Structures are given as structure tokens and as C-alpha cells.
Amino acid sequence: MNTVISPVNIEERSKLDIRTGDTVRVHQKIEEKGKTRLQVFEGLVIARKHGKEAGGTFTVRRVSQGVGVEKIFPLYSPNIEKVEITKRSKVRRSKLYHIRDKAAKEIRRQMRNIINIVEKEEVVETEEVPKEEEKVEEVKDKTTE
């Protein structure tokens, strides 16, 4: 008598060795207008919680169009079709929440650089205009003498 508790292959999911620092590609089932489609969410695993037990989850973060997006996936969710580990990274912490701040700092730095470049261009443009006017005035002074 073999009873099926879950539509998910629990043994296969528990063997998945998802660790913090891995780059994973999660294929998630999404239902729209009665149809199901697969949506891929690829990003960095920043946290693993509750191990391989029934309530185990992993948090995946990615930057999409300049905005950080995080999703928490239950390990044994039937809405997850498959999980692929694309890259392994060596990390020294079990929770990588500091990457949120690191990404924000990097964006702030990039914005500061862009603003500085724009300001320099404006300064160059405003400096060139008076020089041309001065030349015109010098030419007028010479012609009147």
C-alpha cells in the first residue's frame, strides 16, 4: 500500500544541496487565466532556513531592472517544477543579508559618479560660452579703434 502524501518527489528535493552563496535557477509554475506556465527566477541564495525538514525554505535574490527582488521558496512546494544550481560560491556566512546593503551602496556610488559626470559636462559647457563672448567683444573693440 503506497500512499502519496505530496505531488513532490520529497527524496529528490531533500537531496538537492542548495547552500547559501549558490546561484540557482528556480522553475516556478504560475497559473494565469486557467493556464499554467513556467517562470524562471535566477539569483543568489542569500539564506537557507529550517534545513531539510517539511517547512524548509530558501531565499533567492536578484537585481531586475535596477531593483533588488527577493523571493522565498518553500523547498517542498508543488509550485516549483525544478531547481538548478548554476554556480557555487564559497561564502563565510550562513545568511548573506549584508548583500542588500552592499548593492544599495554600489547603486549610490554609481549614481554619484553619473551626477559628477553630468555636472562636469555642464561646467565645461558654461565655461566655453563666456570665452566666445569675450572674443566677440575683443573683435568689436579692435574694429572700433
Quickly list its features.
5 strands, SH3 type barrels, 2 domains, 145 residues, alpha+beta, single chain, five-stranded antiparallel β-sheet, 2 helices
Shape: elongated
Identify low-pLDDT runs: none
CATH domain topology of the largest domain? SH3 type barrels
Helix content: 25-40%
Radius of gyration: 28 Å
Spatial strand order of the main sheet? 4-3-2-1-5
Give the termini separation: 114 Å
Give the rounded overall mean pLDDT: 83
User: What kind of sheet is the major sheet?
Assistant: 5 strands, antiparallel
Q: What is the quaternary state of this protein?
A: single chain
Report strand %: 25-35%
Structural features, described:
- The protein has 145 residues and is α+β, with helices and mostly antiparallel strands.
- It has 2 domains: 94 residues, SH3 type barrels; 49 residues.
- The protein is built from 2 helices and 5 strands.
- It has a 5-stranded antiparallel sheet with strand order 4-3-2-1-5, covered by helices on one side.
- The longest helix has 47 residues.
- The model has no long low-confidence stretch (mean pLDDT 83).
Brief digest:
With 145 residues, the protein is α+β, with helices and mostly antiparallel strands. Helices cover 37% and strands 34% of the residues. It is built from 2 helices and 5 strands.
Itemize the secondary structure elements and their pairings.
Elements: H1 10-15, E1 23-32, E2 35-49, E3 57-64, E4 67-74, E5 80-87, H2 98-144
Antiparallel strand pairs: 1-2, 1-5, 2-3, 3-4
